[in-house]
Design a protein that fits this description.
Layout: E1 4-9, H1 16-32, E2 40-46, H2 48-59, E3 67-71, E4 90-97, H3 98-108, H4 112-127, H5 135-152
Parallel strand pairs: 1-2, 2-4
Antiparallel strand pairs: 3-4
Helix pairs in contact: 1-4, 3-4, 4-5
């Protein structure tokens, strides 16, 4: 496998098979994006209450959301980039709300695993610097998401 992925299900609602599927999908996306071998990412599956706490604390939005990503490669104010050090590339953290995933899967009329995969890929692309703040950025990111999901076989 390409990445070192730490999957944590704080809700105890996902099966081992579902978590393995998400790991495979993120590795597939990493290969398509030519991410270095042994780069690291964490994926945590949480409740609506927990993601609302995170959303409130870090994004100042007091409501649950479906996925939040924290890219480790973005330097904060006063931080310096390490150069010349042979450390693994740490991409960051993806946090996904399991209840929101279920709700959106029903709303959009597709399977839970398809929605979970969509959110995982969406969060992963954010870790790589993709965004959807402008129309052009959104088109690029959403086209790439769709390509990854379709090629992997998680279609609507």
């Amino acid at each position: 496998m390409t990445l070192l992925i730490d999957c944590i299900d704080e809700t105890n609602e996902l099966s081992e098979q579902q978590m393995l599927e998400i790991e495979r999908l993120i590795n597939f996306a990493a290969k398509k994006q030519e991410i270095e071998e042994r780069s690291e990412v964490s994926v945590t599956f949480v409740s609506n209450e927990r993601i609302q706490e995170i959303n409130r604390e870090y994004r100042h939005k007091d409501m649950p959301t479906d996925v939040i990503s924290f890219a480790m490669e973005e330097l904060g104010e006063g931080e310096m980039e390490l150069t010349g050090v042979q450390l693994p590339r740490v991409l960051g953290d993806i946090i996904i709300s399991v209840p929101k995933t279920k709700e959106q899967a029903m709303e959009y009329g597709h399977s839970f695993i398809r929605e979970l995969g969509f959110l995982a890929v969406h969060g992963f692309l954010h870790l790589l610097g993709y965004d959807h703040m402008t129309e052009d950025e959104e088109k690029e990111m959403f086209t790439l998401q769709k390509e990854i999901l379709n090629e992997y076989g998680l279609t609507r």
